[in-house]
Design brief:
- With 138 residues, the chain is of the alpha+beta class.
- The chain has a single domain (2-137), classed as Nuclear Transport Factor 2, Chain: A (Roll).
- It has 5 helices and 4 strands; from the N terminus they run H-H-H-H-E-E-E-E-H.
- It has helices spanning 2-40, 44-49, 53-58, 61-75, 133-137; strands at 78-91, 94-105, 108-119, 122-131.
- A 4-stranded antiparallel β-sheet has the order 1-2-3-4.
- It is globular and about 65 Å long.
Length: 138
């Protein structure tokens, strides 16, 4: 009897957690589309100003804007972006969704890593990294 109750509790916790993970991942995916639209429009400052304090603490607005300008200048606009992996971390510091996309730009490709902090149903960019050979060779 005790074992059955424990299994039911464990199942309920797993079910609730997986629903939250799915919702949090969906919020982050929407924001990746917004990021790419703003990136293509050259709205780099807007991307920074709408990011989470996590990103703003470690990167100045000027440096972040220069980084995105450089990526856009070398790779061009995003043509297609396909999700490779995702991960959700919930802990005492908050909930973070990390998504890695394989992205094709006008002048090359790269793996983009997006980290979003989820706070009260809102996803804000907490980190952005890109690996692209074209960034080094152009």
């Amino acid at each position: 009897m005790k074992m059955t109750k424990l299994l039911v509790v464990a199942f309920c916790i797993t079910l609730l957690t997986s629903c939250s993970m799915t919702k949090d991942t969906a919020l982050a995916k929407v924001q990746i589309s917004v990021f790419h639209s703003e990136f293509d429009a050259g709205s780099f400052q807007k991307i920074y100003l709408s990011s989470s304090p996590d990103l703003q603490k470690v990167e100045s607005e000027g440096d972040f804007v220069k980084l995105l300008e450089s990526i856009n200048r070398k790779l061009g606009n995003v043509k297609i972006s396909t999700q490779l992996t995702w991960r959700v971390f919930s802990g005492t510091s908050g909930t973070f969704v990390t998504i890695v996309n394989k992205s094709q730009f006008e002048h090359g490709s790269g793996d983009e890593q997006f980290v979003y902090r989820i706070d009260n149903g809102v996803a804000k960019l907490a980190g952005y990294h890109i690996n692209s050979l074209a960034l080094v060779t152009k």
